[in-house]
Amino acid sequence: MNANLPYRAAAWLGVLNFLLNVVPFFIAPLPPFGPGADLVGFDLRYHDALIVANYLGVIQVPVGLIVLVFIAAHTRYAEDRARGAWWLLILAAAVATAAVSAIITALFSVGPLLPGLGRLALAVLTALGLYSLDVSFALQALLLAAIGAATLRLRHLPPWLGWTAWLAALLSALATFGLLMSSGPLAATSPLGLSVGGFSLPVWILLLSLYWLVRPPSRPAPSAP
Fold it and tell me: pTM for the whole thing?
């Protein structure tokens, strides 16, 4: 088997992961987050679009997890001689991030299916989803920081991917301020804060994927941990 094939497959999954994060925003608008927002009317008006967008979000969770597990396996392969444990931290943070993302996806997906719950119940679901996002951003920051540290230590990836991972980790950490701020650009309901946190990891994975498509490693691909 071509040793480059697993890396190219992981790279294409990384591109797919990015598209699954971006395309839903072109299918359905963000729900209204303000006090007293008519979430029932919103869910009824955009029902079909929300169903499709949320379905893509459901698919994104396992796709993203597969890519992150492969990154952890690639790190483990590079650490075999160094006997390091960065790969284990990356794997643990990846699984935790994916688990919280699955919960968030479920919270946002159930709204369009149950408009009969009423405005208050839908508002609670939306609030839980929003503030769970900030928890996800914290785990994401840990994941990206670990990837950046492992990259700069092991050089199993180009150093610029390590530095960009740290930058993405910083942006993800900033997005967690939504737990502290009720207004402003980093508030939990702010489109800027949601974008900064929500796209830090997918964009970094896209950069890695493009690199692997252009210059896949020539050594044998690692086995998943």
Answer: 0.89
